[in-house]
Specification:
CATH superfamily: tm_1862 like domain
Structural class: alpha/beta
Number of domains: 1
Radius of gyration: 19 Å
Strand content: 15-25%
Shape: globular
CATH topology: pyruvate-formate lyase- activating enzyme
Helix content: 25-40%
Order of helices and strands: EEEHEHEHHEHHEHEHHEEH
Strand order of the largest sheet: 1-4-5-6-7-8-9-10
C-alpha cells in the first residue's frame, strides 16, 4: 500500500484496511486543525488507487475498509463509483466501507447518489460537526452552519448510511462554553446519529486557534469545565439509538454509553466526578494526546 502525507482514520477504524484515495483535506481551513497543514489537496488517479486495491486483494478476506483522507466524500461520483466497484470486484469479504465527510460534500450529493454509494458498500460516514453553535462554527471557519450540518446528517441517515458525528469539548472557549454545549445537544438531538464521539480540544502550535490563545482572545475551559460541557451535552441530547463515547485519548473522562438506555447513569457519573473535584479520577495529562 502506498501512502502519501499524513494518513488519519477514526479510532473505530483501527482494524480496517486504510485505502488512500485522496491526499489532505478539501477544506483545510478549520482554525483548530493542523492535521493537513502544508499539504495540497489532490485526488489520486484511479490507476494509483486500483494498484493498491489489487495488492490488498492478496491479503485474504477484509471485512472493513476506510477511504482516506480528510474528506473522501468530496470526490465526484464519476471518480468515487469506479473505486467502490473495483473494491467490490477485487477484495473478498468486505462488509463495510467508511469515509470522512463534511457538510458541503454530503449536500453536493443527491439522495439517489448517496443511495448508490450505500449499495456499493459505503456503510458509515464520519461527520466532524464540532459544535451546534453558529457563532462558533463561523469563528472556527468550519465552512457550514448548524442548519447545513443538520441537513447533511439527516441526508446521510435517510440514505441508509450509518452516521458518526464528532463534537469538540472546549471549542467555544470559556466565553461560549454553555452555549456550545446546549446548542450542540440540540443539533445532535435533531440529527439523531448512530454514533457520537466527543473529543477535547487540544490547541496545537501553528494553528490559528493557537495564535488566538497566545493573544488572549481565546481561553480554554479548565479540566472540569470540559466535563461540565460533556455533562450538559449528554443530559440535553435525546437519541433513538446512539452509541455515545468520549474515550478518545484527548479526553479526561473516558465514557462509552448506549443512549438512551444509559443516559441517566452517564449523567450521574459525570456530575459525581465534577462534584468530587478529584483529578485522580481523570486521565492524567501525560496520557492525553491527539
Amino acid at each position: 500500500m502506498k501512502y502519501e502525507g499524513r494518513v488519519i482514520r477514526p479510532p473505530s477504524e483501527a482494524r480496517s484496511l486504510l485505502l488512500q484515495i485522496s491526499v489532505g483535506c478539501s477544506h483545510n481551513k478549520c482554525t483548530f486543525c493542523a492535521a493537513y497543514k502544508g499539504e495540497k489537496f489532490r485526488i489520486k488517479t484511479f490507476e494509483e488507487i486500483e494498484e493498491d486495491i489489487i495488492e490488498a486483494s492478496g491479503y485474504g478476506y477484509i471485512e472493513k475498509i476506510f477511504l482516506c483522507d480528510g474528506d473522501a466524500m468530496i470526490l465526484p461520483m464519476r471518480k468515487l463509483v469506479p473505486i467502490l466497484e473495483s473494491i467490490n470486484s477485487h477484495i473478498k469479504g468486505v462488509q463495510r466501507i467508511g469515509l470522512y465527510a463534511n457538510a458541503k460534500s454530503i449536500l453536493r450529493k443527491t439522495p439517489e447518489e448517496l443511495a448508490q454509494l450505500r449499495n456499493l458498500g459505503v456503510g458509515i460516514a464520519y461527520l466532524g460537526m464540532e459544535t451546534g453553535n453558529d457563532d462558533i462554527l463561523q469563528a472556527i471557519h468550519k465552512g457550514a452552519n448548524s442548519c447545513q450540518m443538520l441537513e447533511a446528517g439527516r441526508k446521510i441517515k435517510k440514505a441508509g448510511i450509518k452516521l458518526s458525528v464528532t463534537v469538540l469539548l472546549g471549542i467555544g472557549g470559556t466565553t461560549k462554553s454553555m452555549e456550545h454545549a446546549l446548542d450542540t445537544a440540540r443539533v445532535l438531538t435533531e440529527i439523531d446519529p448512530d454514533y457520537v464521539g466527543a473529543l477535547t480540544v487540544m490547541v496545537v502550535p501553528g494553528t490559528a486557534l493557537y495564535e488566538e490563545q497566545m493573544s488572549g482572545t481565546f481561553q480554554l475551559p479548565d479540566t472540569f469545565g470540559f466535563l461540565k460541557e460533556l455533562g450538559i451535552m449528554v443530559a440535553n441530547s435525546d437519541f433513538t439509538d446512539c452509541f455515545f463515547t468520549s474515550n478518545h485519548a484527548s479526553n479526561y473522562l473516558p465514557i462509552r454509553a448506549r443512549m438512551p438506555q444509559e443516559k441517566n447513569e452517564t449523567t450521574r457519573l459525570i456530575h459525581s466526578v465534577i462534584e468530587s473535584s478529584n483529578k485522580k479520577m481523570l486521565r492524567p495529562e501525560y496520557l492525553r494526546g491527539l
